[in-house]
Amino acid sequence: MIERIIKIPKSQSFFLFGPRQTGKTTLLKARFHDAFWINLLDDSTFQKLLREPSLLMEIVKARPVEQWIVIDEVQKIPELLNLVHLLIEERKQKFILTGSSARKLKRQGVNLLAGRAIEKKFHPLSAEELGVAFDLKEALLFGQLPFLLTVESKKEALSAYVGMYLKEEIQQEALVRKLDQFARFLEVAAFSQAQVLSVLSVASDLGVSRNTAESYFQILEDLLLAYRVPVFQKRAKRKTSIHPKFYYFDVGVYRTLRKRGPLDPIEEIDGAAIESLVFQELRAFIDNHGKSLDIYFHRTQDKNEIDFVLYGEDGFYAIEVKRSSKINSKDLTALKLFKNEYPEVKMFVFYLGEDERVTDEKIRIIPMRNALVNLKDFIF
User: pTM for the full model?
Assistant: First the structure.
């Protein structure tokens, strides 16, 4: 079993949110092996608590107060959170509440227990967790969802995974009226991977209104399947882009949805995959280690772009991602301009070459695999 790095509370109730099959259950059963489980994916359990949520009180009170209670996929019955809140207050009961979506909780105005429980986010495997087993080429082709370690055909397994989300999350929860249209949207959105996002252009490609396309993107974010990364604009002296960039949460999911036609250059698909892998590694590292950093990108109107800007209480970093095996002075132009505007920033280039070096401008150039496996040493 691969040891997961995420820091989770040992004495306080908490939420653990993450996409399906990222390993939430495996993690919790390893760290809380004596916990009592209430699995809402089990139909009999779900139906019983859906008809009579108050049964939760009886179930929990039959357990020792010191025993952890896990409610798996809690978003399926948001009403349970009111009872959880009561049990935390009156009984000092400790809960672990997992979910693959915060959509229902948000839509029904649930306040996530008003601070009585910490919220943690879970991700696919990271290069740091895999260590010597991390295979950069495999990660760029198939992503890093844990279940892929034990399947014969990763491509088929990823296709089934995407289909599972359409059936179990989208269709069962009646999130959209036209499932075939939403399935088409997933593919169209993949063409925006690692790109500045135009919701209007996606809507035009689909033949739907902008509001419909926007609602589809919101569904992806609520299901933790995608992110929109905003532009870094703090203290900006130059005019910047106003639109965010878009990323599916895992490279393998992106590759599965990004259909390639005869005229599609493989370099374009591979370039997005490399940038996407760095994004998911940064996101996982920040959440796993509890870093106070937000992820941005920077793009001026004259198209000088930096792929990632990390900014927050734990530092200020600018990272360029290069698909090439050699770095020349022209590749560093955007970072140098950014440094002129923000002298406090620490600058990095992750690339596919083999040599590590530091330029006169203090730009640290690092081979991609080394950078991802050792983020805590190179950056943090």
Answer: 0.92
